[in-house]
From TrEMBL:
Keyword Iron-sulfur carried by entry: no
Keyword Lyase: yes
Protein name: Probable D-serine dehydratase
GO terms, molecular function: D-serine ammonia-lyase activity
Catalytic activity, as annotated: D-serine = pyruvate + NH4(+)
Cofactor(s) required for function per UniProt: pyridoxal 5'-phosphate
Amino acid sequence: MESQLLSALEQNAPFISHLKAAKPLYWSNPKNSTLEQGLDYVGFTRSDIQDASARLTRFAPYFMKAFPETTITKGIIESPLVEIGQMKSALEAHFQCAIAGDLFVKLDSQLPISGSIKARGGIYEVLVHAERIALKAGLIHQYDDYSKLFSPAVRQLLGQYTIAVGSTGNLGLSIGIMSAKLGFSVTVHMSADARQWKKDLLRERGVEVVEYQSDYGVAVENGRRQADSDPSCIFIDDENSKHLFLGYSVAGERLKQQFSEQGRIVDSEHPLVVYLPCGVGGGPGGIAFGLKMAFGDHVHCVFAEPTHSPCMMLGVMTGLHDSISVKDIGLDNVTEADGLAVGRASGFVGKAMEHLISGFYTVDDIKLYQMLGLFKESEDLFLEPSALAGMSGPVWFHDKSKLVQALNVDPACITHLVWATGGGMVPVVERLEYLSKAMAIPK
Ligand SMILES: *Cc1c(COP(=O)(O)O)cnc(C)c1O
């Protein structure tokens, strides 16, 4: 292993020394290929996405009843797609470049129920387990109106099962809120660095929160151990879950529908470039899979990570995936982008998706705060720091860049889409703290 690690690092020496120094880097992925070639590695097909989508549709009547805020979207958990022309101008002025084409944002920060991208995969995985148990017990049938699940009998049944998850943040919120609503007994294992407001909110909803003095890895380990020793306990594994991945993937067809409703074309002359913040990889990986299936080779997926935690870039670049950690190259994995503070990427996602990702870049914490401030000023929208990692993507793809030249189209015909992954649940006091920190940075 040691020699494998050294030779992988040596082969990529110029990039590695850049990463080591925590300097922002764009790395074009040489393994990126066509959808047809890349699909062989994924291990899922279109029908897996359709299956996930159909499950979410079956649950829509349940959501309308259990979470009345989803009534306006008929029980479908989806976020707005918005053009952000003012932000485009703000980015151009701040970073002194021109961004050809149009800039859009996908506001997963406004997803109902848990206000982050985890309301896709996290909630979906809880539904998979709830449906399986309720079907087996004969409390529902697949063609029933699933609003039946909002009942004391179902709550009592699911209460005999425990859902466990290790998380410092948004995954814990999503799984906790959804599981408790369905009636599961649910335990969220949280590390010392988890924010107090998240623990308070979960406890208010009836979730058991177990706190650890050590880091995320220990919290996850304990969650796993709880599940191993208890047959009625289901452990949700952020690093290896195919349910999470497929829950995210449904976003592709939904986005296609939204662009078509807005009359926006995506084709060979009008490519779509999507910038996705990446932590362990399940969220951006699953969404990228869905996007590729929806738009084919006309969509280009780019992953964004903090300069101190570029775990997926490092794993794909070296080919070592989850056998390498950012600590192996001397990085500390400390970042204000808590949703992205992951030292070791998911090996499952890296191996499945490495042929379908165009590129990876890193962004430093100061820039995240600058963009948090710019976004609030220009569009009056708030995001948490992690959610802004995708916002510097269009700057790498400025009109004179090699990246844009490589797309081989009229630059004015490019649609840039920043995936804004969270911030909707952040309490007002914390928002003001983030904003004042942003304003304190010299321009
Ligand atoms: C979880 C999360 C991500 C990244 O998702 P992964 O599945 O960990 O890669 C990005 N942004 C926010 C706000 C998140 O909570």
